[in-house]
């Protein structure tokens, strides 16, 4: 029974497919015919897709973006190891020409924006009329008044002094002098520095060749009444010239004496060397003469730099130029006298 049913179903299905295959519906495509077959392209043709020719790329004046397909395609062509086809070389040439033209345009644009200064251009004349008409501006000075001229010794006063100690410039040291006269206030009415006041100063070493004066800085003054005042003023001569003059020892004998003695010994050696040439028994003095000349040169180099020494004796008269205003209001006061 089951076999009979299967046979019936199979026969029924087969008959149905035969019936459907025999049926046909006519359309417009049956009248137009079969469609034409498209031409198949090879892989090499796809890899070398033609782009715009060289002339079109040059005249655009714009360079493709690095991320564009055309730029990436040309970059791959330039980096491959296989020989390029003529079409690929044209594409690369067009890209290079476009790149050079773009760089040149950028350089011209930069030069137009920021031109370099012309060094050969004439500079303005400092002696022109415009420069000469500009006056020199000097800062003005404001006048002031001495509070009490009875208790001031103003800048520029002279102090007469007698040296109590001698001065030698070989070594730096201290010195002292004594006022030889009374010093009054600016208006000349009040005695401020009594005769016999002591002034202490200091001097430095190092007198150079050709100098005949030594600089002394007088630092502090002390009066017989016990008043002490910082002075810090330079010493001068009686005419106001800075520095103190004295006897200058140039040390000529020390500087040149040893060199002259060695040179004399060398000359004596040369004389006896020449004299011995006439004798049959010759004695050679060449090494001795050469050594003597070398010793003379060394002695001269060591002694030529000896500096001169200035001597100024005690008891000599000097002057001190007051370099600042001296105020005595803190130690003196004025009272009416009957």
Describe this structure in words.
Among the domains are: 149-247 and 310-327, Lipocalin, CATH 2.40.128.260; 252-305. The chain is built from 9 helices and 15 strands. Helix content is 36%, strand content 18%. It is flat and about 165 Å long. It has helices spanning 2-22, 28-32, 43-47, 54-60, 69-79, 86-113, 129-132, 252-275, 286-303; strands at residues 152-153, 158-163, 167-168, 173-179, 183-184, 191-193, 198-203, 213-214, 216-222, 228-236, 244-245, 247-249, 309-312, 317-321, 326-327. It has a 6-stranded antiparallel β-barrel with strand order 2-4-7-9-10-14. Strands 3-13-12 form a 3-stranded antiparallel sheet, with no helix packed on it. Strands 1-15 form a two-stranded antiparallel ribbon.
| Overall geometry | flat
Taken in chain order, the helices and strands follow as: HHHHHHHEEEEEEEEEEEEHHEEE
Average pLDDT metric:
72
Q: What is the CATH class designation of the domain at 149-247 and 310-327? A: Mainly Beta
Number of helices: 9
Please name the CATH architecture of the domain at 149-247 and 310-327: Beta Barrel
Compute the separation of the termini in Å. Answer: 176 Å
Biggest sheet architecture: 6 strands, antiparallel, barrel
Strand order of the largest sheet: 2-4-7-9-10-14
Percent of residues in helical segments?
Answer: 25-40%
Strand content: 15-25%
Helix/strand-derived class? alpha+beta
CATH fold naming of the domain at 149-247 and 310-327: Lipocalin
Keywords: Cell membrane, Membrane, Transmembrane, Transmembrane helix
Membrane topology: Single-pass membrane protein
Organism: Parashewanella curva
Protein name: TrbI/VirB10 family protein
């Amino acid at each position: 029974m089951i076999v009979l049913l299967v046979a019936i179903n199979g026969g029924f299905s087969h008959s149905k497919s035969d019936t459907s295959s025999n049926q046909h519906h006519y359309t417009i495509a049956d009248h137009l015919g079969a469609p034409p077959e498209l031409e198949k392209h090879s892989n090499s043709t796809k890899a070398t897709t033609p782009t715009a020719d060289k002339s079109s790329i040059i005249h655009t004046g714009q360079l493709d973006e690095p991320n564009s397909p055309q730029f990436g395609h040309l970059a791959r062509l330039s980096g491959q190891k296989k020989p390029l086809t003529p079409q690929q070389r044209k594409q690369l040439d067009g890209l290079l020409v476009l790149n050079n033209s773009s760089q040149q345009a950028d350089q011209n644009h930069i030069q137009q924006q920021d031109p370099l200064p012309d060094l050969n251009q004439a500079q303005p004349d400092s002696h022109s009329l415009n420069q000469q008409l500009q006056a020199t501006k000097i800062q003005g000075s404001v006048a002031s008044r001495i509070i009490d001229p009875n208790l001031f010794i103003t800048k520029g006063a002279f102090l007469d002094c007698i040296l109590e100690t001698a001065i030698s410039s070989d070594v730096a040291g201290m010195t002292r002098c004594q006022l030889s006269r009374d010093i009054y206030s600016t208006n000349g009415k009040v005695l401020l520095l009594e005769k016999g006041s002591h002034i202490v100063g200091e001097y430095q070493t190092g007198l150079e060749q050709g100098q005949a004066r030594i600089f002394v800085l007088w630092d502090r003054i002390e009066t017989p009444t016990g008043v002490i005042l910082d002075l810090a003023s330079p010493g001068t001569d009686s005419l106001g010239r800075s520095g103190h003059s004295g006897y200058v020892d140039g040390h000529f004998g020390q500087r040149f004496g040893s060199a002259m003695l060695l040179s004399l010994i060398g000359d004596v050696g040369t004389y006896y060397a020449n004299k011995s040439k006439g004798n049959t028994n010759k004695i050679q003095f060449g090494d001795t003469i050469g050594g003597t000349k070398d010793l003379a040169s060394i002695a001269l180099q060591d002694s030529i730099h000896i500096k001169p020494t200035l001597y100024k004796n005690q008891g000599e008269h000097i002057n001190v130029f007051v370099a600042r205003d001296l105020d005595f209001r803190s130690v003196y006061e004025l009272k009416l006298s009957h």
